[in-house]
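Notes to self after the call with IL:
- keep both proteins in one doc
- input above output, always
- annotate only the second one for now

Protein 1:
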Amino acid sequence: MGRVTERRRVLRIRDGAPSARTDTLVAEEPLEIRLSGKPLAVTMRTPGDDFALAAGFLVSEGVVGRAEEVANIVYCAGATEGGGSPTYNVVDVRLTPGVPVPDITLERNVYTTSSCGLCGKAGLDAVRTTARWPIADSPPVRVGPDLLTVLPDRLRAEQRVFDRTGGLHAAALFSPEGELLDVREDIGRHNAVDKLIGRALLSGRLPLSRSVLLVSGRASFELAQKAVMAGIPVLAAVSAPSSLAVDLAVETGLTLVGFLRGGSMNVYAGEQRLDLRSEATAGAGT
C-alpha cells in the first residue's frame, strides 16, 4: 500500500534567510479502476481506502447501489513496479453474477478519466433518470442553519493529514442532528466523496437519506451528482457551487449550500430543508 505522505527536501526562505529542511507532502498516485477485468477509469488519488474509492465511484456511475451487488474487490497482482513488487495502484471490481455490467467504451473511459462530469442538459437528465433513490421522495430532513455553521470547524478538526501537509481536501457525513458519521481526506475532492460513499455501500448503509455531506472546497456538478446518486439530501460547501451544480440541485431536489463560512451561507436550492424557525425567533427578539 502506498504511503499517504512523503518527505522531500526543500529550501525554505523566511525574511530573506534561506535554510534547508525536510517537508511533508501529501502523496499522489494514479489508481486504475477495472470492472470485471476491463479498464474503466483512472484517477489521481491519495493512497488509502482504495476499495471504498472504487465502490463509491461505481455508485456515482449508477453501476451498483447495494453491497450484495459487489462480489469482491482486489488489487491486481500483475501490476508491478520495475522490481516486481505490487504497485497497489490497480483494483479490479467483480460484480455478483446477474448484476449487469455496463458497456465500457472508449468514450466512457475518457469521460471518467477526465473527472469533469457530463455537460449540459444531457448530464442533468442522465443523473435524474439513473438515480436509484430520488431525493424528492426521501424521508423529510430538516437542518438548522445554526447547526450547519459549526460543521466546517468540526470537519477541519478531523483533518489529520492536512495538519501535516496542508494539501488535502476533505469530505464528511453528518446526521441532521450534527453527529459526525464519517470523514475522509484525499488530494481530490471527488475521491474523498467517493471514499465516503463507497464505505457506506460496503457496510450496507445506502441510501444516505438522513445525512448532510460537507466538502472542504467548491461544489462542482460532479460532487452534486455523487450526492444525488447516493441519496444524500443536503450538500454543503465552504466555497462556491458551479452553475451546473445548482441546475442539478434544482432538477433533483437536492439542498445545496455554498460559502458556508462563519455564521453565513448561501442557499442555492432546496431551502425547504432548512429549519428557519429558530432563526426567525432570534431575529424577532432583537
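Protein 2 (the one to annotate):
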Amino acid sequence: MLYLLYRLAGFLALHLPLPLAYFIARRIADWRYYFIPRLRREIKANLKAALKQREQLTGVLTDPRMVRITVRKAYYQFARYLTDFLRSPRLTKAMVQRLVIVENLHYLETALAKKQGVIALTAHVGNWELAGIVTSLLGFPVAAIALPYKSKLVSRFFSRLRENHGVKVILTGSNPKQLLRAIKNNQIIAVLGDRLFGEKGMPVYFLGQLTSLPRGPATLSVRTGAPMLPGFLLMEKNRYRLFFGPVFQPPEGLSDEEKISWLTQAGAKKIEQIILSQPEQWLNFTRIRPEYNGE
C-alpha cells in the first residue's frame, strides 16, 4: 500500500504544475500534523531542543508559540523536500545552474584531488536527497548511504530516484566492500550524521545534551584515510544553496579511537551550527535522546 502511495505521489509531482503539487503536499502535511500526534511530539521535542540551544548561544528567546510555528514550518519544509525529490527525474544540469547557488566547491575538489575518496557528512536538513543528485549533475561521482525501507518495493523506488542521475546507492547493512570500492574509485560517500540507524553510536555533545550519533563516517575516514568534510543543500525561497566546508583535521598525536571521537564531535558541532541557522529545515523526525552517563 505504501509503495502505491509513493508511486501516486511521484506521478502527481512529475505531472502537475509545481504550485499545485506544492499545494497538495502542504495539505497532506496539514493532515499529518493534526492526525498523527506521536510524530508531532517527536518533531516538537527535537525542534524545542534546537531552539533552546539557540537561545543559550545567541540570546534569541524561545517561547511555546515560536516552537509551534517552527514545528508547523518543518512540516511544510518536508512537503517541499519530498515534492522536489519526487520531481528530480526532471532535473538537468542547466536547471541546477539556474536554481542552485553553489558555494565553496573548492573544498570538495581539493579533497578529491588526494585520490583517497571523500566522506561528505550531511544531515536531515534542507534537501539531503537532492544534495547528492545535484552534486552528481555537477560532474562529481557520488555514492549515498541510505537506510532501506521495510518494503523492498519502496526501497527500490527511492533507489531508482537517486540512481536516475548517477548516484550509487549503498544500503546500510550491505557488504562493507561496497564502501571500500567507492573509496578506491575516489567517489564521494554521502552519509547522514544526525541520527542513529541501529549501529553503535559515539557519545557527543549535541544541542546542549550528551547523546549518541553515528560513529561510522568518522570510523570510515580514519580507517581508510578518506578526508571527511561537511556538505549541505538548504532551501532558500524558490532556490537552493549547496555548500561545503573544509576538511575536518584532527589534532596530531591522537590514537585512531581518539581521532574517531574527535571527528564525530566536530561533525556534530557543524551539523548543530546548520540546524541552529535554519531550525525549521531540520527534518529528523526521530527524537534525539540523552545519553546515559552513569551518574
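Annotation: The first helix runs from residue 2 to 15. Strands lie at 100-103, 118-122, 142-146, 168-171, 188-192, 201-206, 209-214, 228-236, 239-244.
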